[in-house]
Design brief:
It is a single chain. With 465 residues, the protein is of the alpha+beta class. It folds into four domains: 95 residues, Orthogonal Bundle (434 Repressor (Amino-terminal Domain)); 128 residues, Arc Repressor Mutant, subunit A (Orthogonal Bundle); 114 residues, Beta-Lactamase (2-Layer Sandwich); 34 residues, no CATH class. The chain is built from 18 helices and nine strands.
Length: 465
């Protein structure tokens, strides 16, 4: 006959004792056992026998189920749920170990759960503050700092363009970036499966003298990653010189700005300024055609179009925006000082939010801001990732926008005269159009009118003054 498995309920016993306000000596006296035995039970160094369970229930008039509890099932479930948070994704947390912690160390479990609850509350509060227009004095936003650094310089860095042009000439003479890396740095370029790359698109392996690339990358992405590695190897001093006059409150903001400069350098290597500036005029800013000429992606090409403000060789100044289907802005690049460079992009009337319904199709639109300024916009979806069956991918929309005075230079306006522009706002909080049915919030400084006697079609009615 199989023996019953010993029951260890030390943490549960300790909690019951504390809830009743008893010391170990008090409980020992009540149960007619030694205080040292109570200590051994609480440390799970002795099993809790059926006789002891009955004695606990009778002595303290407790229900047997209350004494036995749920075996820590609730705490275990809560801890399992918390540990599914993405910030723990790279930590090996076996379910069995999680259960052991919850059952055997309920105090530590409760502390972790409280900390996580506080973290989530502060996280949501920070997100709410970040959704506002005014920065909080006590919140440092490295992404915003990096964007301000780029915007203040109109996303144009001629010194990096000059370095990149020299590197592009050298690479072309060697037969391409891969051959240039082999000759200049003794680095081979190797394409490896995604599972071998372990989440990396590119990795510099000094031990094997190789630049490793994920073989799921398409041609344009692979070339960009090679150019990015070249930029990091050859343009470090150039990045440092540009960053020297930047003001950053922390290292994260500086690193983000440096990463943006590296991407700028990589794009400048693949699309050298002089050749690119000539091509955009010859092809009348046809992004898809230019991308094919330089072997780059639509997004890379659109991104590069925002940088063409080198003194003496200026081209059409563009504003660039990238959003996901939820409307989150993941990139802003301003080559023209547009009014919506900092906060704009959330207006649902802008076609950049509707192109997900027509993937890979360029959608054009004339826009008008509340102050009468007019702009021309092109928008299209782009896809990142993928490359294989069930490989994760992300679809986003990008928009390029220029002032109406420059729009005639774009191929997209040849059959689209600037009539009947779509009225959009920088963002609802700054847009004072009273009749907009797409409005999500009233504008700052306007009182919302009561609707006791009158309800407008617009979501909010607000006072004129």
């Amino acid at each position: 006959m199989a023996k019953d498995r010993p029951v260890y309920m030390g943490p549960r016993l300790r909690r019951l004792r504390r809830e009743m306000g008893l010391t170990q000596a008090d409980m020992a006296a009540d149960l007619e056992i030694s205080a040292s035995y109570v200590a051994l039970l609480e440390r799970n160094q002795r099993p809790l026998t059926a006789d002891m369970l009955l004695r606990l229930a009778r002595t303290y008039k407790l229900d047997m189920a209350e004494v036995a509890g749920d075996g820590g099932a609730e705490q275990t479930a809560r801890l399992h749920a918390v540990l599914k948070d993405p910030m723990f994704a790279d930590i090996d947390l076996p379910a069995l170990a999680t259960g052991d912690v919850a059952v055997n160390y309920p105090g530590i479990t409760e502390a972790l759960l409280r900390l996580y609850t506080s973290y989530r509350e502060e996280h949501l509060a920070l997100a709410d503050r970040g959704a506002g227009l005014e920065p909080q004095a006590d919140v440092v936003d490295p992404v915003a700092e990096s964007r301000r650094f780029l915007a203040a310089r109109r996303n144009s860095f001629p010194s990096l363009d000059e370095l990149a042009e020299k590197l592009a000439i050298e690479a072309e003479a060697e037969g391409g970036l891969a051959d240039w890396l082999r000759v200049r740095h003794n680095l081979r370029v190797r394409r490896l499966p995604s599972d071998v790359m372990a989440g990396s698109m590119r990795r510099l392996d000094r031990h094997r003298d190789a630049v490793l690339l994920d073989d799921a990358l398409d041609g344009a992405s692979a070339q960009f990653q090679l150019a990015l590695q070249v930029a990091y190897l050859e343009m470090r001093k150039g990045f440092d010189a540009v960053l020297k006059d930047g003001q950053f409150s922390g290292e994260s903001a500086r690193r983000l700005a440096r990463r943006a400069l590296a991407s700028y350098g990589a794009a400048a290597i693949l699309m050298p300024y002089t050749a690119f500036a000539k091509a955009v005029e010859a092809r009348r800013y046809d992004v898809e055609a230019i991308a094919r000429q330089f072997g780059t992606s639509f997004e890379q090409t659109a991104h590069r179009l925002t940088t063409l403000q080198k003194p003496g060789q200026e081209r059409v100044p563009f504003f660039f925006l990238r959003v996901d289907p939820a409307g989150n802005v993941s990139k802003r690049l301003d080559g023209a000082g547009f009014p919506f460079a900092r906060h704009g992009g959330s207006c649902p009337l802008w076609s950049v939010h509707r192109v997900f319904a027509t993937p890979r199709t360029v959608v054009t639109q004339w826009l008008e801001l509340p102050d009468g300024q007019r702009f021309f916009s092109i928008a299209r979806t782009v896809t990142a990732g993928g490359g294989g069956w069930n490989a994760p991918k992300v679809e986003r929309a990008i928009a390029l926008c220029c002032a109406a005075e420059h729009a005639h230079r774009l191929v997209y306006t040849q059959d689209m005269p600037p009539s009947d522009p779509t009225p959009i706002g920088v963002t609802c909080r700054l847009c004072h159009r009273p009749a907009c049915m797409a409005r999500s919030a009233p504008p700052i400084g306007r009182d919302v009118l009561p609707d006791d006697f009158r309800r407008t079609h617009a979501p909010f009615g607000f006072a004129d003054g």
